[in-house]
């Protein structure tokens, strides 16, 4: 091993130890709180007549990719709309490349039914439609108001254990929770989703009510649903390092953490790093991922990232029609591409990527020590 690789390897390991890893006890405490609230909210939504399938835990925590704090959970809330007929429609080319679709209601068996009160789930679905298309925005708002009502009720209960707030107006349905004597914080993102399989779609995927990126802002975007492969991703990520006790997830976690400390890298979503890893694993199957190769593989991922940015093309490993970089605007892509080209050329990984200027919100302020 060249000495520069050796020192990069130890810098990566130190960075991982100091900045990336979550304390096990913190994770356990946060999970207990989340599980308790999850059960309570599920029961509440069922009571309102919302056609819920069981919540599913998704995202970084359940893929072993969460970094720094045990404070964010993603809960998938799949709705069962299988008693209506739906057509999955393209919107335009930009939307297709970004993975967004529209769901058009065909026949609605419940057209005549009306909800008991305006605060309950409306079985006729007309309340959630825009020109015959299911509106992701309206569904999200409905859940926001259901959660608000649940939280109002929770606050009035005899002895509320936690301080709860529903974040208003954001793109997601988010619950902020303060718990424990040291007032720790956690947030749970509730993601409304629709399972396409039970409604007879020629795909086993799922669409989620995630707001479209800026490139898709404008008319009619309220009815756009993002096709999600979170179930497949969770399965892949959970197995990915098993056979060889590899450092694949470690690399992604380090990149995700760099992204939080480094404003240049902050332009990229965590999802980009995970997708780069999946691409490299597929393109170069024979590569050695043991802990000895940490520095080499880390550089490989950066180089692959750079070349994808250069061509603005990172195909989804689950659907080759989707380009994960399609949502990024060109100037942003150019900036980060130029930056990475410099880092790779100078081999200044430690100085530029693993060293924080100390001005980021993770390195200063009270939350940094939590
Ligand atoms: Zn920092």
From TrEMBL:
Keyword Nucleotidyltransferase: yes
Protein family (similarity comment): Belongs to the mab-21 family.
Swiss-Prot/TrEMBL cofactor(s): Mg(2+)
Lineage start: Eukaryota, Metazoa, Spiralia, Lophotrochozoa, Annelida
Signal peptide: none
Keyword set includes Ion transport: no
A Pfam family this chain is assigned to: Mab-21
Keywords, comma-separated and alphabetical: ATP-binding, Magnesium, Metal-binding, Nucleotide-binding, Nucleotidyltransferase, Transferase
Molecular-function GO terms, alphabetical: ATP binding; metal ion binding; nucleotidyltransferase activity
Record-given protein name: Uncharacterized protein
């Amino acid at each position: 091993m060249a000495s520069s690789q050796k020192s990069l390897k130890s810098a990566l390991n130190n960075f991982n130890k100091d900045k990336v890893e979550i304390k096990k006890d913190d994770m356990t405490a946060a999970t207990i709180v989340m599980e308790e609230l999850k059960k309570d909210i599920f029961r509440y939504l069922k009571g309102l007549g919302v056609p819920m399938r069981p919540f599913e835990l998704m995202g970084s925590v359940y893929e072993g990719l969460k970094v720094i704090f045990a404070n964010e959970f993603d809960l998938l809330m799949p709705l069962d709309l299988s008693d209506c007929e739906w057509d999955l429609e393209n919107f335009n080319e930009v939307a297709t490349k970004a993975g967004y679709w529209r769901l058009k209601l065909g026949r609605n068996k419940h057209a005549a039914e009306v909800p008991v009160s305006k605060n309950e789930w409306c079985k006729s679905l007309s309340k959630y439609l825009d020109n015959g298309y299911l509106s992701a925005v309206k569904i999200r708002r409905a859940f926001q108001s259901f959660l608000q009502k649940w939280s109002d009720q929770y606050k009035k209960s005899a002895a509320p254990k936690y301080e709860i707030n529903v974040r208003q107006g954001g793109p997601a349905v988010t619950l902020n929770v303060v718990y424990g004597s040291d007032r720790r914080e956690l947030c749970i993102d509730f993601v409304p989703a629709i399972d396409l399989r039970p409604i007879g779609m020629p795909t086993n995927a799922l669409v989620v009510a995630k707001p479209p990126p800026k490139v898709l802002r404008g008319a009619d975007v309220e009815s756009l649903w993002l096709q999600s492969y979170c179930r497949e991703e969770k399965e892949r990520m959970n197995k990915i390092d098993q056979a060889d006790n590899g450092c694949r997830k470690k690399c992604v976690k380090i990149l995700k953490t760099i992204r939080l400390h480094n404003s240049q890298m902050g332009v990229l979503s965590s999802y980009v790093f995970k997708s780069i890893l999946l691409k490299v694993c597929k393109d170069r199957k024979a590569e050695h991922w043991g802990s000895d190769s940490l520095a080499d593989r880390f550089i490989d991922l950066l180089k692959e990232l750079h070349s994808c940015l250069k061509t603005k093309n990172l195909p989804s490993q689950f659907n080759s029609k989707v380009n994960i970089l399609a949502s990024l605007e060109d100037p942003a892509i150019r900036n980060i591409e130029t930056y990475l080209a410099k880092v790779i050329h100078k081999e200044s990984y430690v100085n530029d990527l693993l060293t924080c200027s100390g001005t980021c919100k993770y390195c200063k302020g009270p939350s940094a020590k939590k």
